[in-house]
């Protein structure tokens, strides 16, 4: 009975693979991978096999698949993570150095809370992105100055559609004594649909913040876009883009660095002053972040002088914009992010030196 269950689960897990013979891998290499996978699966108990079958068939990013890192050795864990990620997520993955563990924010125990175990769920990893798309100058012309204010007294300044496309900083107008005593958020963001801001500003205090479409897949620390208060209905094009946001993005503060992870099934497009400083250029640019990839948008250790100069500048220099699903700039009919159906604007309070 148990043997039949194991055989069924192993077959189900293997059939859900992304890798195949052809352009992705040669027949000989495919044979080695298949043997390595079956050796790995042979070391799992029935409970772990059931969990892995659910993970790879449903692309489940909630459940952890933990293995003991004392036996086998640590280097074997890295090989297992690479093997699983290549077979079930990225067939063109070169080595494990391209992988980065995503901080758990679902309310369950993450990597740090597993004791002697480490997670090998391929959907708990992001692939580090180093690809960029050069930015095309924005079309000159009309400006659109919109000032909105949320209940907390934060006023989001105008969004300029000129070539620099600078966004004025969010400034605190009045604060109660309780608000002044409270820790200042490291992240403040607003959600936009084209030129219309939707809902109130969101203030992030947790080190890991998720921005996602709905709560259909369980609890997340962050902003659920479906729960925002609306003053007008979406048009059809916006509805299509909104449905494709899915699990959206995760913004994470890690040892002073800021990372953005794309957890949705569609690409996202990044633009803002932080990227310009990351690339040591004054030229505005757009970076494409494919599904499953992660990107560091601020490196606190890369250039101390740059970091100190950032801290002395106005908060508008700490801005990052992210368009969901739809790109803009060079090669796209949308020349500015304000032409995109769904996008967010984030303001960071960068850590002190």
TrEMBL record:
Signal peptide: none
Entry keyword set: Cytoplasm, Metal-binding, Nucleus, Transcription, Transcription regulation, Zinc
Keyword Transcription regulation: yes
GO cellular component, one term: heteromeric SMAD protein complex
Transmembrane segments: none
Single GO biological process annotation from the record: cell differentiation
InterPro entries named among the record's database cross-references: Dwarfin (IPR013790), MAD_homology1_Dwarfin-type (IPR003619), MAD_homology_MH1 (IPR013019), SMAD-like_dom_sf (IPR017855), SMAD_dom_Dwarfin-type (IPR001132), SMAD_FHA_dom_sf (IPR008984), SMAD_MH1_sf (IPR036578)
Subcellular location: Cytoplasm; Nucleus
Region of interest called Disordered, as start-end residue ranges on this chain: 136-161
Biased composition (Polar residues): 142-152
GO molecular function, one term: transcription regulator inhibitor activity
Principal location class: cytoplasm
Entry similarity comment: Belongs to the dwarfin/SMAD family.
Protein name: Mothers against decapentaplegic homolog
Species: Paramuricea clavata (Red gorgonian)
């Amino acid at each position: 009975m148990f043997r039949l269950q194991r055989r069924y689960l192993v077959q189900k897990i293997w059939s859900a693979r992304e890798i195949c013979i052809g352009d992705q891998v040669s027949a000989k290499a495919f044979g080695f991978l298949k043997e390595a996978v079956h050796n790995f699966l042979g070391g799992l108990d029935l409970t772990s096999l059931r969990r892995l079958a659910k993970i790879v068939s449903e692309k489940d990013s909630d459940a952890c698949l933990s293995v003991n890192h004392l036996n086998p050795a640590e280097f074997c864990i890295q090989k297992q993570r690479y093997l699983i990620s290549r077979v079930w997520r990225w067939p063109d993955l070169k080595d494990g150095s391209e992988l980065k563990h995503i901080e758990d924010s679902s309310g369950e125990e993450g990597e740090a809370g597993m004791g002697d175990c480490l997670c090998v769920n391929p959907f708990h990893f992001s692939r580090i992105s180093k690809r960029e798309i050069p930015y095309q100058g924005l079309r000159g012309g009309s400006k659109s100055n919109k000032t909105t204010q949320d209940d907390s007294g934060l006023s989001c300044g105008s969004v300029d559609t000129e070539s620099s496309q600078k966004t004025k900083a969010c400034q605190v107008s009045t604060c109660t004594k309780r608000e002044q005593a409270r820790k200042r958020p490291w992240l403040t963001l607003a959600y936009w649909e084209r030129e219309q801001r939707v809902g109130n500003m969101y203030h992030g205090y947790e080190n890991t913040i998720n921005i996602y479409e709905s709560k259909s897949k369980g609890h997340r620390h962050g902003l659920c876009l479906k729960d925002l208060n609306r003053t007008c209905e979406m048009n059809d094009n916006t509805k299509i883009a909104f449905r494709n946001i899915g699990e959206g993005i995760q913004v994470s503060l890690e040892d002073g660095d800021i990372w953005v992870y794309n957890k949705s099934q569609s690409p996202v497009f990044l633009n803002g002053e932080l990227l310009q400083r990351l690339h040591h250029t004054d030229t505005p640019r757009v970076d494409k972040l494919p599904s499953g990839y992660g990107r560091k948008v601020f490196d606190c250790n890369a250039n101390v002088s740059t970091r100190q100069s950032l801290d002395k500048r106005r908060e508008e220099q700490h801005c990052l914009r992210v368009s969901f699903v739809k790109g803009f700039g060079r090669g796209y009919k949308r020349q500015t992010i304000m032409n995109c159906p769904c996008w967010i604007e984030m303001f960071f309070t960068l850590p002190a030196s």
